[in-house]
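Dear support,

Our group has been running a series of protein-ligand predictions, and this particular one with pyridoxal-5'-phosphate is the one our PI (initials K.S.) wants archived with full inputs and outputs. We had some confusion internally about which version of the output was final, so please treat the block below as the authoritative record. The input we submitted was:
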Amino acid sequence: MKIVINGKETLIEKEQLSMRDLLVLQNVKMPEAVSVELNGEFLNRSEFASKTVKDNDVIEFLYFMGGGK
Amino acid sequence: MKGFNTIAIHAGQSTDPAMPTMAPVYQSAAFTWENPEAMEDVFSGRSYGHLYSRISNPTVTLLEQKISSLENGIGAIAVSSGMSAIAVVMFTLTEAGDEIISSNALFGGTRTLFQNVFKKYNVKIHYYDNDHPEEIEKMINEKTRLIFTETIGNPRLDIPDFEKLAQIARKKNIPLIADSTISTPFLFQAKKHHVDIVLHSSTKYISGSGSTIGGVIVDTGNFNWQNFHFQKTAAKVHPDFLFLASARKNIFQNIGCALSPFNAWLNILGLDTLALRMEKHCKNAEILAQALTDFSPVKEVNFPGNKNNKYREAGIKYFNNRFGGLLTIKLSGKKECFNMIRKLKMVKNAANIGDSRTLIIHPASTIYYGFPEDEKLRCGVSDDLLRISAGLEDAEDIINDIKQAIFGG
Ligand SMILES: Cc1ncc(COP(=O)(O)O)c(C=O)c1O
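Confirmed final output from the archive:
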């Protein structure tokens, strides 16, 4: 499937997978501190295991630790 | 990973390629990136990494992960001192015209911070008594932004009724902030007892040995921040992270109260043995409190674990049958207190607690110097009072030193 992660088109060799598995697959650092947006809506951490990622989904991984404002 | 010691020792990820068993000290002001795009991604929050040690540093992050795990929280911020932990929480949650409600039996420095800094920025402080938490209800209004208490008041050694505090705070949707410096995460499970933000002066028991100054702030994840009036940041975050994001981006990284990597490392080292040390601090304080009761020049021994102490039940309930490492005693007056301090051979006269060494201080002439009499009294401070922080020496040697200082020549 083809999904968009942080603005970049990404090919995933699977039909679908859970958000938790995607975090592992993408080697997302500091998973306990990441905010995950799926198609414009923030997911609660408790939903990571149950929420499935499908073709054409738009995903943002966001941190609040960087510099900037 | 469940046990306290296991978490303290193993929590957090060190990603150093040399794979050291002990955390490395990343003693570097800045961190470089392979290309400007990667750096922009970190600055913008699209990816994770370190840029500059005022903002984050891998050694400091490891400490934050450990403390957050020990408090079962959603995230932590390590800062340069206990005072800056309190200041960051206050600056994050209040603005001019706001009000807070605080326990009146506070560590002197905290009281001075509230009076000298936050009053100046037009934040009104109401003080309630932990023996009468119902007073809070009359003080709450639409400008109240937080309720603040110490888990064991320093040096009054009062223990709040957390159920009652939480009940009042929840009803009005106000966050409950607790300074757990004296109880540490080993004695007090802040999240379980309804605390929303827990903070520590890690200078004390967390670092141990009296080796460094430091502080930590943890969001326990209990509070729903969705409707809280935070100053906006450019960071897009899940509502759970609103406090941590606002504290980091609006306050912490801008006022520059970062913990140095080496001091973070000393705190990490301290965490390895926090539980072992706390057991001994608490035991020594208990033995000392018992022994001092039998010394006739000692008019009063205040220790929450004493049979007749009104906070004993609270200690049993909140601190798993422990009562902390602090006790206070009263002699006849200031002269007798000074005489005793002068004669001590091993116990040190110092303005700190949680050291491996037993420390003693006369609060009225030091930490509370210049405080109005009524404020001193509310904090449990009088001219005849001495505070003792039980160290890790053999109890008999501590007792013998105090005995010779009280009775000797
Ligand atoms: C209960 C409590 N909170 C905060 C502080 C301030 O911590 P620091 O000295 O690390 O700034 C202290 C210091 O004695 C304290 O005892």
